[in-house]
Amino acid sequence: MSPRRKFAEGQPPLFTDAVPSRQRRWLLPVTAAFTAVLAIAALAVCILVLLTHENQRRATIKEAAVLGYVRSFMTEFTSPDPFHANDYTDRVLAQATGEFAQQYRSNENQILIGVARSEPTTGAVLDAGIARWNDDGSADVLVVTKFTSKSTDGKLVAERASRWVLTATQEGDRWKVSNLTPVI
Fold first, then answer.
1. What is the CATH number of the domain that holds 85?
2. Which GO CC annotations does the UniProt entry carry (predicted)?
3. Backbone phi, then psi, for 40, in 5-degree steps?
4. What is the pLDDT of residue 2?
5. Structural domain boundaries, residue 175
6. Predicted local distance difference test score (pLDDT) of residue 118
7. Per the domain annotation, does 129 fall within a domain?
8. Neighbours of 116 (CB within 10 A)
9. What pTM was computed for the model?
10. Residue 162 domain-assigned?
11. Positive or negative CA dihedral for 23, 28, 30, 31?
């Protein structure tokens, strides 16, 4: 027998290439689409978290600015100095706007006389908090203050606490008082 083999016509060949079957590779497009949707969803969540964080940060900064201003104003307002009564009324009037400014201007002489006749008083803010934000951007702030005054001989010390509702309005980059009401 020889190593060569003879083939007859019509006989199937011994070694043939198998016809590759066309299998669809559906796993790769589905995985790519799922990954793209997942990446878009993650990006959307990140953007929403960033926007929420930024809004909260701005609100916190605005609230801190209002409370800082109100504490400063109320400390100055509750600490009249009879030796500098004119300066006191000018400083308060410079920080007033709206209804409070009109009331203060109309009663400025009586306030000036009252401050000049009083004893030196030291005021302190015990606590302050925003009661609500109004639609016009102003804030109603509830403030608790304490007045401390001494008699002329320095022996008697009088302390009195009071509550106020103050409406702070932003004019430009400054806050001003548009309403100041004592709470009974």
1. 3.10.450.230
2. membrane
3. -65, -40
4. 56
5. 27-183
6. 84
7. yes
8. 16
9. 0.75
10. yes
11. positive
